[in-house]
Specification:
The protein is mostly helical and about 375 residues long. About 65% of the residues lie in helices and about 0% in strands. It is built from 26 helices and no strands. Helix 18 runs parallel beside helix 20 and helix 20 runs parallel beside helix 22. The protein starts with 8 loop residues before the first helix and ends in an 8-residue tail after the last helix. The model has no long low-confidence stretch (mean pLDDT about 90).
Length: about 375
């Protein structure tokens, strides 16, 4: 039905005239009238117009979408939730405050779709914080349970924000899930957030493994050293992911255990680009010993270019002593003269006479002079007179 005069939106609203306001939506001579009609419908809270407003939301001729979204929020009907959440997916939650406000007004019916959106946006910190904050404002057990279910290493970027939200909520039912994720990877940067929240929730570690996980999250090296063996499984992953200072502290503690698994993990650091890490790894391997230490150290003699690293590897092999003798004897057959000379020199310094016949046999190698004579002299051998 055509409208011949400009509708009085104020009077229509005061009378609760829904039909009149709906007709005003067709008054295209003045867009402000249409906008005011939408606002009025929202303020009246008439749920029967939600479907029409959702259609209007997709109408390109109606430019001020925020007016419709605000009205949908004011009405608070759950029919609007899918469309509003879909808009957040197409846009970005962090730049969609009107949609977020509308969903907050709708409340609990929006929780499940928003939890799904939070999981979808977990890799985007800014957007995930916006959705998480909205859910926290809505609140309730469903939100809390949703936060707990999302707390996983698979969503690592989301963990600190979920943990902080749980801390603000202050519900101790979150403790088991927080402890589980802390124990799963205390070496991660987000672990410190989790430990802080657990303390706020008055959590006390139940066993030595939980104590170790907490200590690593807080980078309490002294306490980790006192905990000893139970700390090993938590420290090993730090060797792959930590910063230099963290790795150095972890290696010092791990070096007190003669575990082959530990030796292999530390040996992997010999390929690290940081000389201070490689030097310490070599020194600690010299104390640990075993095949897992010997062969990587000998390989370092062949590959390292940094003089300090080479020196550290040599010192470690000398400290290892007998276990390194035969691997160094094998190096006498290397195609690289420098590697052969290094092997001769180290065998001489070790003073183990098991190397003597092999060194004597190598006297014909002119590239080993004068190292070969010095090594043989150290071992107490003298060439027979001609």
């Amino acid at each position: 039905m055509a409208l011949f005069g400009r509708p009085n939106i104020g009077k229509l609203k005061d009378r609760g005239d829904i039909n009149g306001l709906l007709k005003a939506l067709d008054y295209r001579k003045n867009e402000t009238t249409r906008y005011d009609a939408v606002k009025a419908l929202g303020e009246i809270g008439e749920t029967s117009v939600v479907d029409l407003l959702l259609q209007l939301l997709e109408d390109n001729d109606f430019e001020k979408k925020d007016v419709i979204i605000t009205a949908l929020g004011d009405i608070g009907d759950e029919q609007a939730v899918p469309s509003l959440v879909q808009r957040l997916k197409r846009q970005t939650p962090s730049s969609s405050p009107v949609e977020l406000d509308a969903l907050q007004k709708i409340g609990p019916p929006a929780i499940r779709p928003l939890l799904g959106l939070l999981e979808e946006k977990s890799a985007d910190t800014k957007d995930s914080i916006a959705v998480l904050s909205l859910l926290e404002k809505i609140g309730g057990d469903e939100v809390f349970d949703g936060f707990v279910s999302l707390l996983s290493r698979d969503r690592s970027t989301l963990i600190p924000h979920l943990a902080e939200a749980m801390g603000r909520i202050g519900d101790r039912r979150a403790v088991p899930a927080l402890v589980e994720v802390l124990r799963s990877a205390p070496e991660e940067s987000w672990a410190a957030h989790v430990s802080e929240v657990l303390k706020k929730l008055e959590w006390i570690p139940a066993d030595v493994f939980e104590q170790a996980a907490l200590s690593l999250a807080e980078r309490d090296w002294e306490r980790l050293a006192k905990i000893g063996e139970p700390a090993v499984e938590f420290l090993l992953p730090l060797l792959r992911k930590g910063r230099s200072e963290e790795i150095l502290n972890a290696v010092e503690i791990l070096g007190t255990f003669g575990d082959e698994r530990v030796a292999e993990a530390i040996a992997a650091l010999l390929d690290d680009r940081r000389p201070d890490v490689v030097r310490l790894a070599a020194r600690v391997l010299g104390k640990i010993g075993g095949d897992a230490a010997v062969f990587p150290l000998i390989q370092t003699l062949s590959s390292a270019e940094n003089p300090d690293v080479l020196s550290a590897a040599e010192e470690a092999l000398l400290e290892l002593g007998e276990p390194a003798v035969y691997p160094l004897i094998d190096q006498l057959n290397s195609s690289a003269p420098d590697e052969r000379r290094t092997a001769v020199r180290l065998l001489g310094e070790m003073g183990d006479r098991k190397a003597l016949p092999f060194l004597i046999a190598a006297r014909d190698d002119a590239s080993l002079f004068p190292e070969i004579d010095a090594a043989l002299e150290r071992l107490g051998w003298q060439a027979p007179e001609s």
